[in-house]
Amino acid sequence: MHCEQFFQQAGIGEPVHRPELDQYPDYAIQDAAKLAEWLFDLAQRYGNWFRIQVINPQSLQGFLLSLRYWVWSYPAFIVLDRKA
C-alpha cells in the first residue's frame, strides 16, 4: 500500500498499472473500486478502532486463513475471528 501511495505521488501509478487493469472486465473493475471506496470510508470513520487487512487468497497466508475459516468464495470478511 505504501508503494502505491508513492507511485501515485510520483505520477507513475496509473501508467504502470493501466495494462494490467485493461485485462479485467468492466464489472470487476467497478466492483473493486466500490470495495476500495467502502474500505477507505470505514478506515476514515473509525480510525484505530479496528484493523483492515487485505490478504491475497493466493498467498500462503491467504490459503491458510481460507482453510482456517472455511472460506471458499471471495471477497471474504473475517470479523471478530468469524467469517462474515
For the structure shown, list the relevant keywords.
84 residues; mainly alpha; two-stranded antiparallel sheet; 4 helices
SSE diagram, text form:
Layout: H1 2-10, H2 13-21, H3 26-46, H4 60-69, E1 78-79, E2 82-83
Antiparallel strand pairs: 1-2
Give a verbal description of the structure.
The protein is mainly α and 84 residues long. The protein has two domains: 48 residues; 32 residues, no CATH class. It is built from four helices and two strands; from the N terminus they run ααααββ. The chain has a two-stranded antiparallel sheet. 0% of the residues are buried.
Strand content: under 5%
Structural class: mainly alpha
Give the SSE order as H and E letters: HHHHEE
| Global morphology | globular
Largest sheet, in brief, is:
2 strands, antiparallel
Placed side by side, the strands forming the largest sheet appear as: 1-2
Tally the helices: what do you get? 4
Percent of residues in helical segments? 55-70%
Mean pLDDT metric: 78
How big is the Rg?
A: 15 Å
- Report, as a whole number of angstroms, the end-to-end distance: 24 Å
Q: How many beta-strand segments?
A: 2
Low-confidence stretches: none
Q: Estimate nothing, just give the exact number of structural domains.
A: 2
Q: Concise description?
A:
With 84 residues, the chain is mainly alpha-helical.
